[in-house]
Amino acid sequence: MSEQSPSFWFPTKTYGWGWGLPVRWQGWLVLAGYFALQYLGIRHFRAERNIRGLFIFLFAVTAILIAVVVLKGERAAKSQ
After folding, report:
1. Which of 11, 15, 20, 41 is the most exposed place for a label (fewest CB within 10 A)?
2. Tens digits of residue pLDDT in 29-41
3. What is the Cα–Cα distance from 20 to 7, expressed in whole angstroms?
């Protein structure tokens, strides 16, 4: 029997809510892109000059990350 990699990018956490660290390269790429965009946004907006723009940008990038994790994350098993 061959061991296949999972089809989801982010596994559910064993304890608590949400998802854990990525288990496929696509998930790691998404996570690295998220941190890169955060870094670039912080460098671009400069909090002391444009705090509102920075918060809007960080909110949008985080919303996109959450959407990707929800779409590509492992579905939680129904508890009885």
Report:
1. 15
2. 999 999 999 999 9
3. 15
The tens digit of pLDDT for each residue in 4-48 reads: 667 888 888 888 888 888 999 999 999 999 999 999 999 988 877
- Exposure letters 9-46 (e unless 16+ CB within 10 A, then b): bbbeeeeeeebeebbbeebeebbeebeebeeebeeebe
Interhelix angle for 51-72 vs 25-45, to 10°? 170
23 Cβ contact partners less than 8 Å away, ≥ 6 residues apart: 5, 6, 8, 9, 10, 11
CA distance 2 to 25: 20
Q: Residue 21 and residue 75: Cα distance in Å, rounded?
A: 15
pTM for this model (two decimals): 0.80
